[in-house]
Fold each of these.
Amino acid sequence: MKTEIRIKFNVPPYAEKAGDYIQECVAGQKICGDGVYTKKCNEWIEARTGIKKCLLTTSCTHATELAALLADIKPGDEVIMPSYTFVSTANAFVLRGAVPVFVDIRPDTMNIDEKLIEAAVTEKTRAIAPVHYAGVACEMDTIMDIAARHGLKVIEDAAQGIMSSYKGKALGTIGDFGCFSFHETKNYSMGEGGALLIRDEKYVEEAEILREKGTNRSKFYRGQIDKYTWVNFGSSYLPSDMNAAYLYAQLEIADEINQARLALWDRYYERLEPLGEQGRLELPRVPESCIHNAHMFYVKAGDIEERTRLIDWLKENGILSVFHYIPLHTAPAGKAFGRFHGEDRYTTRESERLLRLPMYYGLTVEQVDEICDAVKKFYRS
Ligand SMILES: *Cc1c(COP(=O)(O)O)cnc(C)c1O
């Protein structure tokens, strides 16, 4: 028997003005990259996060690839990262011939365990790529300190981290480079898209050239040179201005979207807290140093078998919940390209317990209550 899904896991975010803004691009017959709306998005992100320079990209994957190029990652270099992440964190460096060195996560936040990073540093290590899982910050003070002492670059995978902060600093602005995602599964979306955040002025020109097929066209558009030419290798990482227009409509109401998500997150927490206190279920933890963005609400079941039964139970009740990353070091490509440093105490175990509940802009408190009731019923029986 196939039950109808009444509560979806994700509905891509949408803001009403998107149609008008896209229409404006269409009417002006100006839909290529770096148009009016791309600039508006870049400026919004710069103003909001305080970053020196933001460049909208075709994806977070591409933003991370740009960061790997700017960090001058070379074949044989090592980059330290968690294994519990999306493939793009690793791919960006693998494409440069580097070796991802996976380090275990902390079970409380599912983020890289900052205390294990230094032991994984070798003379080949060039960078650390922390991933802010669920929009909850990694312990950045420790990570930045290790990087400074060993001369390493820090590339923040802040795909899930826009509107979150660590000790008052926006995620994506703390390391040398930060990468946002505007994929439709994220808090703000342009279908496919992302952004590269550049902390130091000295990388801006090179980044613009890499992003514009190795040409200095950005300078030309600003009137700083009278013709543009091919000056370096590069690729094309500019999204169409129509996609930026779609995103900008959401950025204009970013606080409203953020507040709505946080209210849902708090409701989940409040309703499921008794189960947490009884030790039936584990709830997410947000360290005091972090303000999060309610990117996701996850719970942890006892083990993989219990999680599977809970997913099935919710599905029978018309609710779609999903598990998340299969640790990269257990995947064929992860085994071929990378290695795990130290013991896998939590990465595999915790990833097998984790279950993501529906979370999107537009989900209602009543729906959250219904989901929580279904979870409670599961644990009562
Ligand atoms: C979504 C995501 C990405 C990839 O983002 P795209 O914009 O789809 O390329 C990378 N890393 C993490 C942690 C993500 O959640």
Note: The chain has 14 helices and 13 strands.
Amino acid sequence: MTSYAPLPVTFVKGKGVWLEDKAGERYLDALSGIAVCSLGHAHPTITEAIADQAGKLIHTSNLYHIELQEKLAARLCKIASMDRAFFSNSGAEANEAAIKLARLYGHEKGIGKPVIVVMEGSFHGRTMATLTATGNPKVQDGFGPLLEGFKRIPYNDIKALETLAERTSDIVAVLCEPIQGEGGVNVPAEDFLTRIRSICDQRGWLMILDEIQTGMGRTGKWFAYLHENVVPDVITLAKALGNGVPIGACIAKGRAAELFAPGNHGSTFGGNPLACRVALTVIETLEANNLISRAEAMGNYLRKQLEVALKNLEGVSDIRGKGMMIGIELERECGDLAQSSLEKRLLINVTAGNTIRLLPPLVVSKEECDLIVKTLSDLIKSFLQK
Ligand SMILES: *Cc1c(COP(=O)(O)O)cnc(C)c1O
């Protein structure tokens, strides 16, 4: 169906940060399939894990124990200080699980119509519940009626959350991204999450973080909430968790981790041996190669170099981000840059209309960062001169 308008290119293979099209042309991938292929393309360790596991066992069912799923759950929970995990096949499904947990949590407290607080500019997925939670009219238009039970505040506005808390009695949770991805790489104030945490504690709400884009090392920590000294109640993951093999997770601690009972949530594919083997291998590979501290160092380098190259350039309003998640905001709409960048053999993305988004694989080298900066700053300069 016509749900996408793809750029005029077809890739046939990849290696590390490079992709190759049908004609044999090479492209530097500074997007990683939207924060998915953090280890780069065709990573040999991942390829080996997929091949080996496919030769042993791909799928059984959650009707039986799955050792690799139990191992992955334990591993993720240890890294994230959580207690239990539910596995899905995508980010939207991970968020669906989190939303259902919040509603169970409310009902358990005797709240018949529980409300989840969500943010303007957010993105949580394309299913009915997650598009309702999403703060972007383009994602919602035409799909009404939307779901009940969501209230929206501006991102990074603690005052608005406090005011809403005073006025609304049925709130059970806050759901937000620690850095908004689709919304334009919006980095909140340094204590934003800490203050959400303390309001959630005071009021007995669940703090749910959508780490689908920010998680698995992208921002220079395992999860973006680790930049602040807080622990949420529920975390959702997907994208880089499988380096391209579909897998999502909703991990939780405390009461939130115990709310699902046998029979009230499920997934046929979720947490199958193949996906879990890959995710375990992703975690091991990130650790064995120190890729998370590298994401921080190389991300800082890339952002610095972009600042130098675009310094004092009229028309560039902001350069922001954390680690390997970088946004360059221009003063005007610049969606066409994705196409002109493709012509220069560099893959980038434009989000929120006027923000160039870079999400390179965490294995990107310094030289490749320099190439991104050179290609992109030339493109931006000529775009702004038009
Ligand atoms: C990509 C994304 C999702 C949706 O994930 P899908 O796998 O496309 O369903 C949800 N939340 C955030 C923050 C995302 O970046």
Note: The chain has two domains: 11-30+290-384, 47-288.
